[in-house]
Amino acid sequence: MLLKRPFNSILSFGILFVCLSHVQIEAAFGQLGSDRISPLFAENEIIDITLKSDFPFGSYHKKSKPESFSKFRASLIYDWNGQKVERSVKVQARGSGRLQQCEFAPIKIHFKETIREDLFSFIDSDVKVVTHCQENKVVSRQRVDGFLLKEYLLYKILKAASVSVFDVRLVRIRYVTMGNLEVANRYAFFIEPIEHFISRNKNVVKVIRDEYFEDAISDFQMDTEKILNFYAQFDSQVDDSNYVANNLGQLLILNDDWVGSTRSPNTKSFLTTENQIISVHYDFDLSSLIQKFGPRKSKQGHTYPATVESDMKWILGFCSTERSGEISVERKSRLCPSVVNKILPTKDEVEKVIMQFSALATEDLQEIIERTKVFYQALKRVVQALEEQKKTGAKH
Fold first, then answer.
1. In a structure prediction context, what are the per-residue pLDDT tens digits for the chain, which is 396 residues long?
2. pTM for this entry
3. Residue 142, C-beta contacts closer than 8 angstroms, at least 6 positions apart
4. 69 and 137 belong to one structural domain
5. Coil, strand, or helix at residue 278?
6. What is the domain extent for residue 173?
7. How many helices (H) and strands (E) does the chain have?
């Protein structure tokens, strides 16, 4: 466990985050970010990799015994600077929801140590790999690949829109057994490890592990008032700009697995050098752009299919309405105009990222382009509406 809470009061939690000095933060949470950026996440070119292991890739099933979570010996084989490299690693099943649903297991690859001047330089922990999931012959390979490719693209879109997100790298993996029997040859993508995210973000100190919250709740022994105070203290240190941008980003990609809270599912929280808390979201497989749900509203009230009017209504409502589990409406309304104005100019870069992604079918790209046009038109109208509100308020 990263940090065991030695305190039994909400006051101590506040002192921990508000009063720690720069040196104390390093001692409590680990070293600050560095320049250790891996070539794996420095480029966008699709690379070919062979993963050799007797891990039961295609035969894994959700009812498999616990040993399915064991680490299997494996080799990664790839080209680096014109040379063939074979590297010893371990592979393991991962995930919860996907693990229950996927016929082809999502995995993580464990690296024993980092090697300089290598594709995987500065990666010395485990890396999540999003696999194609379905092997069902009823669903076409193009459609299955489309699910994965669209999710990969959503990460890239959020990054282009200046929303905090993990880096990803698209690859083609040839899965083979130790006896060189090919199991599959499909698209996949690597998700940037937490340590790597910290390395490339100079203002980020360390991840706040889930265990920290679990320990705190345990300490309070189901005392509702103390638990609520604990989360209120956490929310008081949430970076407002990051929070608003994340909500707008999830609207942009029409993520259905999102509740708007500062502690939404599929979220990692980080402590910054300013003693603020930022969140980074991941796992976008339940985006309406991927699953193509029928007409509906998401948990957070996103309308699908989205229109300029529905997006505009949602954004203005988000910025002006007090909602349970969110930062206060005063904090949201104060930051909404500046965050909207920060994201609005990213339209061209977002469209460029989409149009340059040739791996995805044209019709899928066009649908995502149309979605972004609606979103940015709504942002423009939101800016106009906020300006009108400001003028009206000034008159009164």
1. 333 333 333 333 443 444 444 434 443 344 444 467 899 999 999 999 999 999 888 665 555 554 557 899 999 999 999 999 999 999 998 876 676 777 788 899 999 877 778 999 988 889 999 998 877 665 677 788 999 999 999 999 999 999 999 999 999 999 999 999 999 999 999 999 999 999 999 899 999 877 777 777 677 777 788 877 887 888 889 999 999 999 999 999 999 888 777 777 789 999 999 999 999 999 999 899 998 766 777 777 777 889 999 999 999 999 998 887 788 999 999 999 999 999 999 999 999 999 999 999 999 999 999 999 999 999 999 999 988 887 776 554
2. 0.87
3. 361
4. yes
5. strand
6. 39-197
7. 13, 12
DSSP letter at 9 equals S
Looking at the domain assignment, is residue 382 inside a domain? yes
Q: Which of 340, 284, 331, 285 is nearest to 311 (CA)?
A: 340
- Residue 358 domain-assigned (yes or no): yes
Q: For tokens 């993996």, name the residue.
A: 173
Q: Which of 181, 197, 213 is the last residue of a domain?
A: 197
Q: Collapsing DSSP states into helix, strand and coil, what is residue 109? A: strand
Is the peptide bond between 265 and the residue preceding it cis, with omega within 30 degrees of 0? no
Check which CATH number belongs to the domain holding 288 and give it: 1.10.1070
Of 47, 58, 48, give the one whose Cα is nearest residue 183.
58
Is residue 162 located within the same domain as residue 289? no
The DSSP code for 345 is G
Tell me: do 247 and 362 sit in the same domain. Answer: yes
- Are 190 and 123 found together in one domain? yes
Distance CA 363, CA 386 (A): 35
220 falls within a domain = no
Query: Number of structural domains, the chain?
Result: 2
Residue 293 lies inside a defined structural domain of this protein: yes
The enclosing H or E element of 90 equals strand 83-93
